Structure formats: structure tokens, C-alpha cells
Amino acid sequence: MGDTLEKSCEDAEFSLDNKCSTKMGELVEVSSGEKIKFDDTGLSLVLQNGLENLRLENSLTDVILCVDSREFSCHRVVLAAASNYFRAMFCNDLREKYEEKIILKGVDAETMNILLDYTYTSKMLITKQNVQKVLEAASLFQFLRMVDACASFLTESLQPDNCVGILRLADAHSLHSLKQQVQNYIIQNFTQVLSYEEFLELPADVLCSTLKSDDLYVTEEAQVFETVMNWVRYKESERFPLLPSVLENVRLPLLDPWYFVETVEADQLIRQCPDVFPLLQEARMYHLSGNEVAKKHSTMSGNTTPPSTSGYRSST
After folding, report:
1. Contacts of 36 (CB under 8 A, 6+ apart)
2. What's the mean pLDDT in 1-11?
3. How many distinct structural domains can be found in the chain?
4. How much is the pTM?
5. Which of 274, 266, 183, 277 is nearest to 229 (CA)?
6. 254 inside domain
7. Nearest CA to 224 among 183, 191, 189?
8. What are the tens digits of pLDDT across the range 284-311?
9. Which of 113, 142, 171 delimits the end of a domain?
10. Residue 142's closest CA among 67, 89, 207, 208?
11. pLDDT confidence of 29, banded at 50, 70, 90?
């Protein structure tokens, strides 16, 4: 902890009778009265508190960050030590290295204040109201531990009505671990997530990776087909060319044959897209002739792994 010291001694044996001096308390351990080695972990806290006091007193500050209409007096060395962004700014031969005032874009004053408080105190308050702005600013200025803290907060905050927004945020800032956790959440809570229109904003690649999962929680494959068609129709002119690649993730042979004929084949978008006809033909062969004939057909056509039949979805 901050107010304790880690102790070790060299070149001597410790004895139960070898006590710490009363004056030093728990600060050091003495070895034969010759050598003392201690790691003053509390010094980092002393330094941090000292730097924060200097900032509050506006003492020894050497740069002013201008955000909106506010000015923040800071120490270049502190900013450079905490952030790769500011390290590059102040340690390379850039114009900002010599400027007294630096105008920052892409962040508002309130969020910048949170970043600076964190920099000087290691503390911050993350809320549902500020987490997106804090994450975006921390990512921009490369406060990496703050980014991790925001990602952890978002993971704990996942709900069917916000998971797509969090997924898009993770994708925008290349937070791969958070993105994977959100995708797993959507897969496991698929039917609840579908009830929110935000789901239709999913990018195509994320939608496909979600729909192809064997663990996708659906009660019947018709839900997956309807999801695809709703997604395409949401931005039809833009997404219609993507219909074949997205429809590949629907396991058409698992559909009820009557539903397949009356709903899938009768759908106007399906009928207008010749590129999906091979998928329909394959599903017909499964429905009419059984899996073995369809597998033989797939092998003859060069497709040794028939799409849409890699497994069954979860239904419990």
C-alpha cells in the first residue's frame, strides 16, 4: 500500500531477534546493523500528491491546455509521463513543444478536466452519462489505463437496449476484447436484442459473425431469416447487394418446408436477387431428398462443406 514499505536485506541472515528499530517502526528491517535496503512504495503517492498541489497552486506549470473557453495549467513532464500522445507532442520537435498555450480539439472542457484530474490523482468517476465521452477522449489522448477502465465499465453495463451502441463504440476505437464480449452478449441474448431498432444498425460483418454462431439463442431458424430481411430492408438501396452474403448465414435447411416455400421463396427481395438462388436450391434438395443427396450435390459442385448445416442453434 501507499503508506507501507517493502523491505529486504542483502548478504545476511534474518533472525527472529532482529527487530526493526522503534524509531523507524515498520519502515526498515536491519541486518546486522550493516546494511538496509528498502523500497519506499509510498514515495510515489507523495510525489503524486505533491504534483497535484503544484497544479492547484499553479506553481511550476509550463503549459496551458485550451479547451473550448477554459484553460488548464499543467506540467509538460506529467502529461508526457501519463500519455503517449503528449509524450510525442512534447518530446519530439513539434511546434507544440515550444508553445505556452496549446489548443486541443476533439474533447470538451468537462471531459478534459476529468482526464487531468485522473492524471494527477489516479482517480476518476465513470458514469453512464460520461463514459462515452471519457472513452473517446482517453482513446484520442492515449490514456490507456483509462480506456481499459471505461471498457470494463461498459462490459458490466451491457443491456439489450444498449449493447449495439457499445459494440459500435468498441469497433470505432479498436477495443477488440470489449467488442468480442459484446458480440457474445448479443449471441446469448439475441431474441431480446432484436426487439430494439438499434439492432438494425449493426454493420454487415458483425451481423454475419453473429448469425453464423452455433450458440445463437433462437427458438427457430425463421427468426434468423426474418432478422436478415429486416436488416436489409432497413437500408434497402445500400444493403440489397449484400443480401447473398448475409443470407448465407441463415440455415435454410432448418426452416419448416412450408415456411420456406410460402415465406422465403415468395419474398420479393429474394425473387429479385438471382445470386441467392443456389442457396435456395440447396435448401430444396435437403427438404426433398435428405441430407445425403444434398451433400453429394455439394461435393459435385465443388462445395464440400454445405452452408447452413454446420450445427443447430440453442433453443433453451
Report:
1. 9, 28, 29, 30
2. 38
3. 2
4. 0.72
5. 266
6. no
7. 191
8. 988 887 654 444 444 444 444 444 443 4
9. 142
10. 89
11. low
Task: Kindly tell me if the per-residue pLDDT of 283 is higher than 60.
Answer: yes
Strands 37-39 and 6-8: antiparallel
Q: Which residues pair with 71 in a beta bridge?
A: 66
* 196 closest CA partner among 218, 242, 227: 227
Closest CA to 250 of 237, 232, 262: 232
pLDDT, position 291: 53
Say how many Å lie between the first and final Cα of the chain, rounded. 47
Query: Are 87 and 117 in a shared domain?
Result: yes
Domain range for 32 is 1-40
Per-residue pLDDT, averaged over 15-32, amounts to: 45
**88-124 CB burial, b ≥16 within 10 A, e <16:** ebbeeeeebeeeeebebeebebebbebbbebbbeeeb
> Is the domain of 12 the same as that of 91?
no
For residue 315, being part of any structural domain is answered with no
| Domain presence at residue 231 | no
Q: What is the DSSP letter of 65?
A: E
Do 119 and 49 belong together in one domain?
Answer: yes
Task: Indicate if 55 and 119 belong to the same structural domain.
Answer: yes
Residue 90 lies inside a defined structural domain of this protein: yes
For the chain, give the percent of residues with pLDDT over 70: 81
Find the CATH number of the domain harbouring 65.
3.30.710.10
Please tell me the predicted confidence (pLDDT) of residue 43: 87
DSSP conformation letters of 252-290: GGGS-HHHIIIIITT-HHHHT-GGGHHHHHHHHHHHHH-
Give per-residue pLDDT as tens, 245-271. 999 999 999 999 999 999 999 999 999
